[in-house]
């Protein structure tokens, strides 16, 4: 039988042999220099971010932890608290959508702990805030305050959301409620100052807008009166559904009301330039006018055509020494041009003397200004296109 000393010596020999082999043989399950970070990230304690989907085969440790968190046998308060903690971890990772899911699951437990429910709502409000869901964030802040009226974070979140939503009066109210609890809270003081400043600016802008609206209304009324006095006819758009408070106004009175609420109201140009008819300081009306050249499918737009100017004043400038590039035959000299306006109802043309003023033309009994922009057709006298154009329509002299 071997002695105890002999047995110890044998054990030492075995350990020495094992250590020698350990130095020479590489451990098959060890982390390599290339993959140690990846392997560390699989260990729950060292994970930087949680995986999107927890597969029990790939992440057995995480699956076990999750089963503990969602254990329905525990008290509802503990379950809600665990889901809150889970949401907080997602929040730290800036995974706000998953945080909202966890906080919502916690609230669905309907535990009786008002503090837990208040925190769940406040934290979900923060997640919604970071996703830009301001109204949802504000709703959660309101709910949190119902569970715990003195929850300072909920009051701060509510004030912040109201500020973002430009509800400055409400933001001030949230701030005042919070400052009653913490009069020196720096964040609430900053929010109150910002809300007060924005409220003052908004009120000032509203006053300016009201003054500007009154001025524009006065100018529209003066313009309409001047147009009516000249006998210029406006072709109004189809009537909109009438409100009960409105009377059966027509003509210029109806146009005056239309001016306040319609884009195509008989005086607003539809041109991309945004130009519109206006009354000058000397009582002269200036119109945006469109010249059409159907032969070449071209147009010219005059943004402020004085009613006292003639067509020749503009044509001589536009077709003087330098002709447009699309006039390849060089025939659009102002001396060769004829001016017409179209009578859509009669499908006819009315010729206008180029030396006639715009006002006299607009006063013609068959002329109607459409969408605030008088338009005229320009043709070359005696050209084949002009003859063809005439053959398809009746022509009258002004």
From TrEMBL:
The entry's keywords: Repeat, TPR repeat
Region (Disordered): 234-253
GO biological process terms held by the UniProt record: protein folding
Residue ranges of domain Cns1/TTC4 wheel in the record: 284-384
Assigned GO CC terms: cytosol; nucleus
CDD domains: CTWD_Cns1
Coiled-coil ranges (or none): none
SMART domains according to UniProt: TPR (SM00028)
One GO MF term attached to the UniProt entry: Hsp90 protein binding
Family, similarity comment: Belongs to the TTC4 family.
PANTHER family associated with the record: TETRATRICOPEPTIDE REPEAT PROTEIN 4
Protein name: Cns1/TTC4 wheel domain-containing protein
Species name: Esox lucius
Gene: TTC4
């Amino acid at each position: 039988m071997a002695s105890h000393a002999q047995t110890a010596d044998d054990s030492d020999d075995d350990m020495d042999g094992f250590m020698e082999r350990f130095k020479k043989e590489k451990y098959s399950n060890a982390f390599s220099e290339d993959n140690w970070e990846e392997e560390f990230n699989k260990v729950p304690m060292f994970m930087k971010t949680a995986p999107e989907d927890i597969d029990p085969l790939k992440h057995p440790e995480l699956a076990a932890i999750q089963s503990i968190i969602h254990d329905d046998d525990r008290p509802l308060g503990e379950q809600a608290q665990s889901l809150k903690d889970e949401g907080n971890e997602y929040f730290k990772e800036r995974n706000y959508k998953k945080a909202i899911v966890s906080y919502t699951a916690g609230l669905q437990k309907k535990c009786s702990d008002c503090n837990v429910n208040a925190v769940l709502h406040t934290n979900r409000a923060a997640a919604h805030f970071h996703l830009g869901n301001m109204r949802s964030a504000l709703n959660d802040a309101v709910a949190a305050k119902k569970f715990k009226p003195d929850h300072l974070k909920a009051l701060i979140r509510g004030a912040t959301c109201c500020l973002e939503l430009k509800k400055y009066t409400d933001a001030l109210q949230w701030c005042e409620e919070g400052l009653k609890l913490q009069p020196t809270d720096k964040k609430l003081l900053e929010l109150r100052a910002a809300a007060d400043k924005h409220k003052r600016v908004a009120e000032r802008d509203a006053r300016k807008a009201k003054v500007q609206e009154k001025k524009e209304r006065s100018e529209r009324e003066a313009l309409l009166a001047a147009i009516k006095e000249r006998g210029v006819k406006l072709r109004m758009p189809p009537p909109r559904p009438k409100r009960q408070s409105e009377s059966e106004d027509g003509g210029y009175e109806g146009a005056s009301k239309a001016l306040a609420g319609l884009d195509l109201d008989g005086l607003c140009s539809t041109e991309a330039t945004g130009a519109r008819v206006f009354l000058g300081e000397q009582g002269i009306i200036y119109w945006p006018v469109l010249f059409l050249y159907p032969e070449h499918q071209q147009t010219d737009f005059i943004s402020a055509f004085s009613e006292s100017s003639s067509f020749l004043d503009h044509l001589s400038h536009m077709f003087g020494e330098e002709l447009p590039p699309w006039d390849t035959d060089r025939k659009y000299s102002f001396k060769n041009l004829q001016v017409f306006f179209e009578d859509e109802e009669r499908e006819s043309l009315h010729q206008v003397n180029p030396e006639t003023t715009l006002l006299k033309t607009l006063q013609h009994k068959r002329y109607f200004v459409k969408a605030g922009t008088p338009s005229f057709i320009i043709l070359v006298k005696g050209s084949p296109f002009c003859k063809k154009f005439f053959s398809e329509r009746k022509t009258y002299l002004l």
